[in-house]
Amino acid sequence: MSFAIYDLEEDVRSLLQLDNFLDGRTTTEFVEELSKDHIRKGAEVNNLEYLDPKPYIRTFESTLRHLKQLSEEAQRQKVAAQKEVEDYELNHSKNVLQLSSQVQSIVSEFDQLDREISSISKKIDPLNQALNKITNSRERSMEAIFLIRAYHGFYTKEKYEPLEKLRVANSMDQKMKCATTVKNLIRLAKKINSLTGNIPKVAKCEVTIEKYGETMEKALIDRFEVASENEDYEEMGRIAKLLFEFNGGSSVVLAFINMSDLIIDDETETEGVVSLLDNDDLWKALDDPSTQVHDLFKNEATEHRLNSLKVSIKFHARIMQTVFENPTPVFKIMIQRIYAQMILNKVSTLLLYSQQAGSLAHVRVLHDLYILIGDFTKDMKDFFVTNEFDENNDIGNTLDQCFADLFIDTLSDNSYFNLEKEMLENVIFGIAHPFNSVNERALSRKELETKLQGIDNESSALNMSVVGTQTTVQEHSRFNLVESRRVRKFREFMKTRLDILRERVEAPSKDQELPSISQTRVVLSLAIETIARVLELSPHKAADFSLEILELLVLDFGGLYVACGLEVAYDTAVQEKANATTAQTTRLDCLRIFSLTSEILFMLSSCIKSILLPCTVNNLPVRSRMISLTNTFIQKCELSLNLILESVMGYVTDRISHLLTTQKKKDFVCEMIDSNQDYTETCEAISDFLIHTQGLLKVHLTNENYTNSLIKIGMITLNLILDHFKRFQVNTTGGIVLTQDVIRYQSVIDSWEIAELSEKFQLLREISNLFTVQPNLINSLIVEGHLAGLKISTVRQYISKRTDFTPSYLERIFGRK
Fold it and tell me: From the CB of residue 461, how many other CB atoms can be counted at a distance below 10 Å?
């Protein structure tokens, strides 16, 4: 024991033990524990708190001594533990070596025992198999004996009491044995009857056994129905199991379905639900090409019935899963009956009624029915999969097959698409016929067709000698051949429907003299609608059907409506050109075709590019054919427009030429200027004509076509006026009048805001100066500006028209030129 003043206390010593060193405290916490009682509270030195270091030093010294002792003790224990470990490792190695030989001996004995057991098993297996055969044979013999006795009982007494006891027994196994026995008994009776021939007693025995089976089956069905009314699903399940063993369960399945409300076609009226068959206005709208009908079956009796079916099927599906061990066949039978009896009746009724309403109404109803029932089928498939009723997709396949069978007669082969084609053809022909009738006279002259044919012939003759261009010629020829065939078909259509169409054709109007944008929208909307239906109803034939729809649009609508509109416009242009010298006013009605055709081609190409071509992404030959047909048609339309514009330019030329002939000889040879007239009457007429023509072009042409047409008209006017000035004598005063006319022409051209054209017309101003300047200044005019670019002979022609002209002018002005 230590008697030091600052020896460690017991609580500190308890912390400095090897078994529980510091008792979980940290070093800082331990140091604070040592120092907590060494502060001299209240002691002050010079008004400062005093701290005595000695207690701390002594305490820490004692602690260090104790720690040193613990370290030495720990070292000793470590050395002793290492020695013990070495001893144990040595003993363990000795034990392992000793046990190794024992293990090898045991393994060898086990292998020997395993070989002996295998040898015995080989000898016993045949005995087991023989025993199993004997057991099975015994059971079969007992069953055969019971079966023969039962047959004998029915043969002799028309009954067999042991079998009846099994039927009325409470045990499920005995009832199952009865069902199996009766099933085999019926087979046996039929086989015996077929082998023995027409023995009356044998035949009677067969009938008796069958009646017994029917009696048993009917009793079970009656109990099944009672259990169903009481919602005793366990009893229903037991009876179903018996009947599945007896006859495959067909009777119990039919009984279950008949007891449910699934097959009852409830036609009772529900508030807010209407029948499509009773809505005459809707049927008219369905067959109207200009009317779009959406949500056809919304709040309609068919949709209402399908929704009710969904609820009923989901409810009965859970009952079937409880009642039947394998509900999948029951589900399939239920689905087949629902589709074959209820849904098929609805579909057939609506489709038959829609045929009477018209081809468009028929395909619209067909498509909406297909979508409606397709959505119903998809919902049912999702339900059976989600609730784990259809792990192998058997029910899903049945649903798909039943859905396909509903429309197999309509969608088989090409019968459906023939309806679509017939509908679209009828609409196109119905639009084209009034237009062709109104413009029959213009179309009969075939001015544009003849012109185009001549161009094609010239192009063909030219391309025959050029390598690589024969394909284009063949394509044009094929286009014309197909177009001719379409025209013949259109005429045949008109003959068959002439009386009906005569009633529909109204008196001719201005709107019927040119193609209609609204009618184009109707046809394109129907084409897009048709493509949408094709993608739903016949997606595997979408590419081929899209090509046929394109042919209807390009060859039927384009050839019989758009092309005929161009023919009418060209005929109008030709007629106006022929009357250019006698017409009182300038109408140029043919220009209206430009904006109409441009918009129609834009709508048509947009439809083809965004709707039809994507359908052929996986069929490059069809896609190429589509592009070729479209490009050929557009090229033909563009060429037709160019020919119409060419005829318009011919009209402008003839009209201006005629107006120039009205110029009086004295207009430019006068003594004084009329202050009431700024320019001559001819200039006024030509200016008014140019302004009026420019206004018409601005209305009907756009962008480059408008600008190029004005440039061409301006150059025609310029050349005609230049040639016109060569024919008139001009004196000094007349030169001023001529200058006023030129200024008027320039102001009209400048209003068109085409810098190129305005620059060209500066030549007129410079020529007018030739008639107003002094003779000695002419030489300076012809060497600069636009006159410098003219031939000398041309300049001489203008100068020679001065009234003061003498031959000496030429030598003085041109010198040796």
Answer: 10
Nearest CA-CA partner of 570 in 554, 553, 591? 591
Structure-block tokens of residue 481:
């051949």
Amino acid at 272: G
Backbone angles phi and psi of 383, in degrees to 5: -65, -50
Q: Which residue pairs from 4-13 have beta carbons closer than 8 angstroms and sit at least 24 positions apart in sequence?
A: 4/58, 4/62, 5/58, 6/55, 6/58, 6/59, 6/61, 6/62, 7/62, 8/59, 8/62, 8/63, 8/66, 12/63, 13/66
Mean pLDDT on 623-628? 93
Count CB atoms within 10 A of the CB of residue 768: 22
Q: Which pLDDT score is estimated for 504? A: 47
Helix (H, G, I), strand (E, B) or coil at 805: coil
Pair 546, 622: CB distance under 8 Å: yes
d(CA 344, CA 734): 95
Contact 739, 768 (CB under 8 A): yes
How much is the pTM? Answer: 0.69
If phi > 0 it is left, if psi is from -120 to 50 it is alpha, else beta; for residue 47 that is left
| Amino acid, res. 108 | S
Please give the biggest Cα pair distance in the chain.
163
Answer yes or no: are the C-beta atoms of 415 and 536 closer than 8 Å. Answer: no
pLDDT in tens, 511-550: 567 888 999 999 999 999 999 999 998 888 899 999 999 9
Contact status, residue 224 vs residue 239, Cβ threshold 8 Å: yes
What φ, ψ does residue 730 adopt, rounded to 5°? -135, 125
Residue type, 312: S
pLDDT in tens, 471-489: 444 444 444 534 555 556 5
538 phi/psi in degrees, rounded to 5: -140, 65
Structure tokens given for 232: 């005793």
Provide DSSP, 594-652: HHHHHHHHHHHHHHIIIIIGGGGTT-HHHHHHHHHHHHHHHHHHHHHHHHHHHHHHHHH
Mean pLDDT computed over 153-169: 79
